[in-house]
Protein backbone atom coordinates (compact mmCIF):
# COMPACT_ATOMS: atom_id res chain seq x y z
CA UNK A 1 0.00 0.00 0.00
CA UNK A 2 2.80 2.44 0.91
CA UNK A 3 4.70 1.68 -2.31
CA UNK A 4 1.59 2.46 -4.40
CA UNK A 5 1.18 5.73 -2.55
CA UNK A 6 4.81 6.68 -3.24
CA UNK A 7 4.43 5.78 -6.93
CA UNK A 8 1.27 7.86 -7.21
CA UNK A 9 2.98 10.80 -5.50
CA UNK A 10 5.99 10.48 -7.83
CA UNK A 11 3.76 10.35 -10.93
CA UNK A 12 1.84 13.42 -9.74
CA UNK A 13 5.08 15.31 -9.19
CA UNK A 14 6.40 14.35 -12.63
CA UNK A 15 3.13 15.50 -14.20
CA UNK A 16 3.33 18.89 -12.48
CA UNK A 17 6.94 19.37 -13.59
CA UNK A 18 6.00 18.47 -17.19
CA UNK A 19 3.06 20.93 -17.16
CA UNK A 20 5.26 23.70 -15.77
CA UNK A 21 7.98 23.05 -18.35
CA UNK A 22 5.41 23.10 -21.17
CA UNK A 23 3.98 26.40 -19.89
CA UNK A 24 7.44 28.02 -19.82
CA UNK A 25 8.33 26.73 -23.29
CA UNK A 26 5.00 27.89 -24.74
CA UNK A 27 5.35 31.48 -23.46
CA UNK A 28 7.03 33.41 -26.32
CA UNK A 29 6.64 36.84 -24.68
CA UNK A 30 9.47 38.09 -22.45
CA UNK A 31 8.47 39.72 -19.20
CA UNK A 32 8.07 43.52 -19.52
CA UNK A 33 11.22 45.48 -18.86
CA UNK A 34 11.11 47.23 -15.53
CA UNK A 35 12.13 50.89 -15.52
CA UNK A 36 13.74 51.98 -12.30
CA UNK A 37 12.36 55.13 -10.72
CA UNK A 38 13.31 56.83 -7.52
CA UNK A 39 10.27 55.51 -5.67
CA UNK A 40 10.43 51.91 -6.94
CA UNK A 41 12.58 49.06 -5.70
CA UNK A 42 14.69 47.51 -8.47
CA UNK A 43 13.15 44.39 -9.92
CA UNK A 44 15.05 42.00 -12.12
CA UNK A 45 13.26 40.17 -14.87
CA UNK A 46 14.35 36.78 -16.05
CA UNK A 47 16.40 36.58 -19.24
CA UNK A 48 14.71 34.72 -22.07
CA UNK A 49 16.90 32.27 -23.95
CA UNK A 50 15.71 30.67 -27.17
CA UNK A 51 12.74 28.86 -25.60
CA UNK A 52 13.43 28.62 -21.88
CA UNK A 53 14.00 31.02 -19.02
CA UNK A 54 17.26 30.95 -17.13
CA UNK A 55 16.96 31.52 -13.41
CA UNK A 56 20.74 31.77 -13.07
CA UNK A 57 21.36 34.84 -15.22
CA UNK A 58 19.64 38.14 -14.62
CA UNK A 59 19.60 40.55 -17.55
CA UNK A 60 21.55 43.76 -17.54
CA UNK A 61 19.39 46.81 -16.90
CA UNK A 62 18.93 49.60 -19.39
CA UNK A 63 22.03 51.46 -18.21
CA UNK A 64 21.44 54.83 -19.92
CA UNK A 65 17.93 55.28 -18.51
CA UNK A 66 18.84 53.88 -15.07
CA UNK A 67 21.86 56.19 -14.87
CA UNK A 68 19.81 59.14 -16.07
CA UNK A 69 17.53 58.63 -13.06
CA UNK A 70 20.47 57.98 -10.71
CA UNK A 71 22.31 61.16 -11.83
CA UNK A 72 19.20 63.34 -12.08
CA UNK A 73 20.14 65.57 -9.13
CA UNK A 74 23.91 65.53 -9.59
CA UNK A 75 25.61 68.87 -10.16
CA UNK A 76 27.98 67.33 -12.78
CA UNK A 77 25.37 65.34 -14.69
CA UNK A 78 27.55 64.49 -17.70
CA UNK A 79 30.40 63.00 -15.64
CA UNK A 80 27.96 61.26 -13.33
CA UNK A 81 26.22 59.59 -16.28
CA UNK A 82 29.53 58.55 -17.82
CA UNK A 83 30.81 56.89 -14.64
CA UNK A 84 27.42 55.41 -13.80
CA UNK A 85 27.23 53.74 -17.23
CA UNK A 86 30.73 52.28 -16.80
CA UNK A 87 29.74 50.85 -13.42
CA UNK A 88 26.37 49.63 -14.69
CA UNK A 89 27.98 47.76 -17.59
CA UNK A 90 30.52 46.11 -15.26
CA UNK A 91 28.13 45.32 -12.42
CA UNK A 92 24.84 44.77 -14.21
CA UNK A 93 22.90 46.90 -11.76
CA UNK A 94 22.35 50.49 -10.67
CA UNK A 95 21.01 51.39 -7.22
CA UNK A 96 17.60 53.10 -7.33
CA UNK A 97 17.19 56.74 -6.42
CA UNK A 98 19.72 59.53 -6.31
CA UNK A 99 21.12 59.21 -2.79
CA UNK A 100 23.92 57.25 -1.18
CA UNK A 101 21.58 55.35 1.13
CA UNK A 102 20.62 52.83 -1.59
CA UNK A 103 24.16 51.96 -2.77
CA UNK A 104 24.16 48.73 -0.74
CA UNK A 105 21.43 47.30 -3.00
CA UNK A 106 24.07 46.81 -5.71
CA UNK A 107 27.20 45.52 -3.89
CA UNK A 108 29.50 45.61 -6.95
CA UNK A 109 28.48 49.21 -7.68
CA UNK A 110 28.87 50.09 -4.01
CA UNK A 111 32.41 48.75 -3.60
CA UNK A 112 34.06 49.62 -6.95
CA UNK A 113 36.92 52.05 -6.39
CA UNK A 114 38.92 54.40 -8.60
CA UNK A 115 42.09 52.56 -9.74
CA UNK A 116 44.14 55.78 -9.46
CA UNK A 117 42.83 56.60 -5.98
CA UNK A 118 41.74 53.46 -4.11
CA UNK A 119 40.20 55.55 -1.32
CA UNK A 120 37.68 57.11 -3.71
CA UNK A 121 34.57 55.29 -4.90
CA UNK A 122 34.27 55.02 -8.67
CA UNK A 123 30.49 54.83 -9.02
CA UNK A 124 28.24 57.84 -8.32
SSE topology sketch:
Elements: H1 2-26, E1 47-48, E2 53-54, H2 63-70, H3 77-91, H4 107-111, E3 113-114, E4 117-121
Antiparallel strand pairs: 1-2, 3-4
Helix pairs in contact: 2-3
InterPro entries: GASA
Biased composition (Low complexity): 30-57
Region (Disordered): 30-62
The helix/strand class is mainly alpha
How many H/I helical runs? 4
Taking the alpha carbons of the first and last residues, their distance comes to 65 Å
Question: What is the CA-based Rg, rounded?
Answer: 21 Å
In terms of per-residue confidence, which ranges show pLDDT below 50 for 5 or more consecutive residues? 30-53
- pLDDT averaged residue by residue: 75
- Strand tally is 4
* Total domain modules: 1
Fraction of residues in helix: 40-55%
What string, H for helix and E for strand, traces the elements in order? HEEHHHEE
* Beta fraction: 5-15%
InterPro entries: GASA (IPR003854)
Keywords: Signal
Pfam families: GASA (PF02704)
Family: Belongs to the GASA family.
How would you characterize the overall build of this protein?
Pfam families: GASA. Belongs to the GASA family. Keywords: Signal. With 124 residues, the chain is mainly alpha-helical. The chain has one domain. It contains four helices and four strands. The strands form two sheets. The protein has a two-stranded antiparallel ribbon with strand order 1-2. The protein has a two-stranded antiparallel ribbon with strand order 3-4. It is elongated and about 75 Å long. The protein starts with a helix and ends with a strand. The model is unreliable at 30-53 (pLDDT under 50).
Amino acid sequence: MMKQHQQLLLLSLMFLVAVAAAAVAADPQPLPQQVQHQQQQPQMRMRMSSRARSLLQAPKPDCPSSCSVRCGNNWNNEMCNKMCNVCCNKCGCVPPGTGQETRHLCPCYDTMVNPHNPHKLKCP
